[in-house]
Amino acid sequence: MNGFLSVLKAETRKLRKRKKYFIFLLIAMGLGVLTGILNTLPALSSEPAINLFSAAGYIDHMFSIYLPLIVFMAANDLIASEIKEKTIISSLVSPVSRTCIYTAKCFSILLFTVVQALIIAAGNVVLYFITDGGISLLPFAYVLFDAIPLFTLIVFACLISLLTHSPAFSMLLLIVSYILLKVLGSFFGISPMLFTSYIPWHSMLHGGLNAFDLLLRIAAVAAPAILFLSAGALTLEGKRF
After folding, report:
1. What is the pTM (predicted TM-score) of this model?
2. Which of 7, 150, 6, 10 has its CA nearest to residue 72?
């Protein structure tokens, strides 16, 4: 357990040191401010069809577009880039097992992404107060809900990064795969079978769910997560560097 926590801290520290994530976060927060400004314009705020210019629309887009992008970049930084640059070898020679290292990398991305999501949620609370004059803490609850399918996306991204070795090709493949899975779920009626359909998950909970439907949705994201995580760990165990 101590070995896992040590690796988790080290991998999270690697992500924190990369300034590009801070810049992307500033851009995301800037879009939130722009959304608030646009929402105050009568021509836009009076039109309910323009969901992008609402506080709810902003956080939905951040959770379905921004956070997956951060996940893909983080997976490439911690896996594909380290494999290409051979820096992953220094991690593998530690007394911690490869499975533990790989799992810690996945959870470090989850921890890092959730922190970014909480910052975005805090910005959304401020945006909601400015535009609607009220305070809603629902965005923080959204983070907890969305962390479940987000982890499935993380282990999927880590597996692709591990198999491709190339950061550029891995990033391209992940973006194309994510868009393709989203399109398949939206237009071909197979969304319940695709884990990407549950990102953002909180949008599906607004209408209420019974216990059985909730369990089915958890299974839809938990099953592929276990599969992707196991496949990635086994692949790293058998890989030579």
Report:
1. 0.85
2. 150
Question: Are 201 and 191 within 8 A, CB to CB?
Answer: no
User: Position 87: which residue type?
Assistant: T
28's tokens = 């995301």
Name the amino acid, one letter, at 115. V
Q: Specify the pLDDT at position 49.
A: 41
Tokens 């105050």 belong to: 40
Task: Say how many domains are in the chain.
Answer: 1
Give the DSSP letter string of 146-211: HHHHHHHHHHHHHHHHHHH--HHHHHHHHHHHHHHHHHHHHHSS-GGG-GGGGSSGGGGSTT---H
Spatial CA neighbour of 22 closest among 56, 58, 61, 73: 73
Query: What is the per-residue pLDDT across 61-83, written as a single tens digit (0 to 9) for each?
Result: 788 888 999 999 999 999 999 99
CA distances from 235 to 35, 63, 99, 121, 230 (A): 43, 29, 9, 36, 8
Which range marks the domain in which residue 46 is found? 2-238
Q: Under DSSP, is residue 6 helix (H, G, I), strand (E, B) or coil?
A: helix
